[in-house]
Specification:
Blueprint lengths: L1 H31 L8 E7 L2 E2 L10 E4 L3 E5 L4 E8 L5 E8 L9 H10 L2 E5 L2 E6 L2 E8 L1
């Protein structure tokens, strides 16, 4: 009888641990998923308080966001990586990789560095505003 009771307790503990892990996994997935309103293409308009021009980039940089990753262009080089959202208004561009073609894009390095340090966002009037610990860094229009 003791053996049956011990097996029952061991089985119950194993099942409860599995349920906890599954619940934690679902919670982590929800934390990573980016809000629907961000999941589209955004074209850069403003970089560090200055309207960008064709002199700054050969083509206007853009970012295409999905629920968990992003891709796009610096105007010359392709970029991609993962997105992490820790709730509304908070976002990070993780594991950002970029091609290394030689470009005539004067602001490419600045754009990449600001993406890497992004920690927050807001959307107003169909524009995306990205910020880091120092404040607003970039703005985008819908693409």
């Amino acid at each position: 009888m003791k053996k049956i009771l011990m097996l029952f307790i061991a089985g119950s503990l194993a099942f409860s641990c599995k349920s906890s892990k599954e619940a934690a996994s679902v919670a982590a997935t929800n934390e990573k998923s980016v809000e629907k309103k961000l999941q589209q293409t955004w074209i850069l308009e403003n970089l560090n308080g200055k309207v960008i021009t064709e002199k700054d980039f050969s083509n206007f940089p853009k970012v295409q966001m999905t629920s968990s990753n992003f891709s796009g262009s610096t105007g010359c080089n392709a970029i991609k990586g993962n997105l992490l959202s820790k709730g509304e208004g908070k976002i990070q561009f993780l594991e950002l990789t970029s091609e290394t073609k030689k470009c005539d894009a004067k602001k490419e390095g600045e754009f990449l560095q600001l993406l890497r340090t992004t920690s927050g966002y807001s959307i107003e009037n169909n524009k995306l505003y990205l910020s880091n610990q120092f404040g607003l860094t970039m703005s985008f229009k819908k693409g």
